[in-house]
Write a structure and sequence with these properties.
mainly beta
Length: about 120
């Protein structure tokens, strides 16, 4: 499974960015994580490929970020609005190898990782 993340960049606080992650194959879920300098990688959002596309969000991004999918393109998007300096990080998309009954939110539950895309928010 290959994942290609894109869409990062620099934006001022209050602005928006949309990240994309194209997958070579779909594997149950797609998640977004981020890692700020000096911090551990943390969960941002995830979506299930099948069915209604159930989603899960970290509390810190709920109501500001929206994850969506385009199954025809094997691509997941992360629309990020009302960005602030705390959102500055390298953002990674990831996919699990195994199906889970609940949406995976831990880094250990994901097996495939994209290369990361940098998001910088200036205040």
């Amino acid at each position: 499974v290959q994942l290609q993340a894109s869409g990062g960049g620099s934006v001022q606080a209050g602005g928006s960015l949309r990240l994309s992650c194209a997958a070579s194959v779909r594997t149950f879920y797609m998640g977004w994580f981020r890692q700020a300098p000096g911090k551990e990688r943390e969960f941002v959002a995830a979506i299930r490929w099948s069915g209604g596309g159930s989603t899960s969000y970290a509390d810190s991004v709920k109501d500001r970020f929206t994850i969506s999918r385009d199954n025809a393109k094997n691509t997941v998007y992360l629309q990020m609005n009302s960005l602030n300096a705390e959102d500055t990080a390298v953002y990674y998309c990831a996919a699990p190898a195994r199906f889970r009954m609940t949406t995976p939110t831990l880094t250990s539950e994901y097996d495939y990782w994209g290369q990361g895309t940098l998001v910088t928010v200036s205040s």
